[in-house]
Amino acid sequence: MQNNNLNQPAKQDPFAWVKVFQAENGLEANIIKGLLKSKGIESQLQGELLQGALGEIPFEQTGVDILVYALKERQAQEILLNYRQLKQSAPDWVCPKCHELNGATFEICWSCGTVKNDESE
What is the mean pLDDT of residues 42-58? Predict the structure, then answer.
C-alpha cells in the first residue's frame, strides 16, 4: 500500500526562486538587490524590462519582483522589514553638493554620487 501523506505540505526546493518583494520601479529594485547582496544574499529581478511599457500596460503590472533562493527567504524578509521601516520613518534628504532630493533609503546621491552625511536634510 502506498502512503501519499496528503495532509503534509510538500517540501520546497531550497534552491527554488521565491518572490520576497515587489518594488515600485527598477531603481528601488536595484537598491534592494544591492542591499541583499551586501548581506550575502543572491537575488534576481523579474519584470524590470516592463518599466518601458508603462502606459501600454496597466501601472500595477509594471512592478519589479525581487526573488531569492527559498533557503534565504527568512533572512531576506528580515532585511526587507528593516528597509520598509526605514523607508516609512526616515525623511528624504537634500544633497549638500548638488541640492537634489534623495529618498530616505539612499545613502549616496542619485544625481552626483555624494555620500549622505549628518548635515543632509
Answer: 72
Q: How many CA atoms lie within 13 A of 39 on its CB side?
A: 19
DSSP state of 26: H
Residue 79 Cα distances to 9, 15, 18, 60, 86, angstroms: 27, 19, 15, 24, 11
In this prediction the pTM is 0.63
- End-to-end Cα, the chain, rounded Å: 70
CA 42/CA 64 separation, integer angstroms: 16
- Is there a contact between 74 and 20 (Cβ–Cβ < 8 Å)? no
